[in-house]
Fold:
Amino acid sequence: MRLQFVAVVVVAATVFQSACSSSGSDGSPTGSSSCTVAGVSLSASPTSITTGATSTITAAVTASASCATTVTWTASPSGGTLTPSGLTAAFASANPGTFTITAASTADPTKSASAAVTVTAANTCGQANGTIVTHSTNITADETWAGDGVTHRIPNAISLSGNAVVTIQACAIVSLAQGVTINVGGNSHLVSAGTSSARFVTFKRDVATQAWGTIRGVSPTSLIDLTWTTLTGGGNFGGGMNDPTISGFGNGYASIPVGVIRVNNVTIQGSQGVGVYLDANAAFTNDSQQLQITGAGKQPINTTMMSLGSMPSGSYTGNATDEVLIFGPNANVFGDMTVEDRGIPVRIAYGTMSIAPSGGATAPVTLTLKPGVVFKFPKVGGGQPGARVTFGTNGNPPNNLVGVLNAVGTAAKPIIFTSGEASPAAGDWVGIWLNTATGSRLDYIEINYAGAASSIVSANCRLINTPDNAALLVGDFSTQYVPPSGMITNSKITNSAGYGINAMWQAPAFNSPDLTATNTFSSNARCKQTYNGLTPPGTCPVGGGCTAP
Structure:
C-alpha cells in the first residue's frame, strides 16, 4: 500500500509540473526574457475622509517590460468598501478608523505597497460643529454661507437687496433670534441649497422658547429658493400676515400671479401662525414640489384666490386648522387656473366670486378643478349667506364674457362645493351660477347646503311666485348659453334651500334640455329643475313649473 501511495504522489506532481511548464516561475512565458518587478508605489487622495466620503487610491508598478503591471487590492481591517478599477481603487467606510489599503504585484506578489486612510465620523446634518458666523448687517452682494455644521446666527432683522444671491450650503444651520425676519427684496435670491434627506439646511430658533420671524419676500422680482430645507419655530411676525414662517409679495391683486417662492422637499414645522402667506398674487414657482407644513398655529397656507393654483404637492395636515384660507379684496378668477387636490379643503369666505375675463380682456377664463378638490363657503358679514359663484357675465348677448367651469371628478374622489359652517344647513351659501359658461363640464361633483337668496330675478318659467334660488343656476337670460343635456352628470345636489337647478336660459321649448338624468337630488326645498325661459314671443305655462319634479 505504501508503494501505491508514493506512485500516486509522483503522478500528481508530474501532472502539476506539466500544467505549469508553459511559463516560468516568475509568471513570464517560457522562453521569454525574465520578468523582474522592482517595486510598487501607492498614494491615497485624500488620506483623511469622513464617513460616507471617498478616497481614491492610485498604484504604480515598476517592472521589466515582460511583466504584467496589474495589482491585487486588499484593505484591512474589515468595515470599509474597496472598489478596484485597474491601477486605481475607491475606498469608503461608514465606520470611523484607520484602514490600510495594499496593492500587490500580480507578477511578483512579494512586491507590494500600502497606504493608510483615516476615516472620522461626519457631523450629523443639523448638528452644530462649534463654528458660529454672525450676520447682522444688510446684504447687497453675493455671499455663500458654509454648511457641514456651521451655525449662521442672525441676531436682528436683515435685508437682501439689489442682485444679491445668498447661497446657504447643505448641513448649514441658520439660527434666528426672537422675532427676526429676513427680508428678500429687489432682484435678490435667498438660496437654501440642501441636496438630500441626509444633507439638508436647517432654520431654527436661536433660543428654544423664542420664535423667530419670517423669511419674507418683499418684491415680485425676488426669489426665496429652498431645496431640502427644514424650517422650525418661525412665524413671530408681530401679528401681521397671520404670522407666517414664509411670505411672498406679488405684482398686485389685479395682476397674474408671479412665482416668488420655489420649494423642493421643504418642511415647515411649528409655525406660530400660518405656514406660508401669499400676498398680492405672489405664487409658488411652477416647478415647486413636496412641501410639508405641520404644527402651524393657524392654517398651513393663506393665499389670494388667483395664486391657489400654484400650491405644490406635499402634505398639509396636523395644523390647528387644516384648510387653505383665501384672502384679499375678492376671490375672483380672471385667468385660467387649475386647482389640484392637496388633501385639505379651501375656505372661500366671500359673498360673491366671479370667474370671467377682466380689465378689457375678452378671452374665456377657465377654472379647472381636479378630483378631490373641496371648496367651502361659510356665511359672511354677520350671518349673511356665503358666495354666489358666477361664471361669465350677462346683459350683452351674444357678446357676454365667458367663464368656464371644468370640474370632472371621479366616483372615489368627487369635487365638492359645500358649506363652510361648523353645523351646515340648507341656504348657508348661494350656489353656483353658470351664467355664460359655454364649454363647462361637471361630472361627479356635489353641491351641498346652497340655495340661499341669489338676488337674481329672471323671466324663466319656474313655479310662479317663487324666487330664483337654487344650488345650481344655469343661463344668462338669453340664447347665448344653452347647456347641453350632458353638461352635468353623475353628480349630487343636496340640502338646497331652493331648487336643485334653476334653468334661466332661453329656448323654443320650456323644458329643454333636461339636466337631471344620471344625477341625484335629495333634501332640497323645491324640485330638481325648473322650466327654462322661452325665446320671444313664447309664453310660459300657466303657473310655471318644473322640468323634473
In short: Residues 2-20 form the longest helix (19 residues).
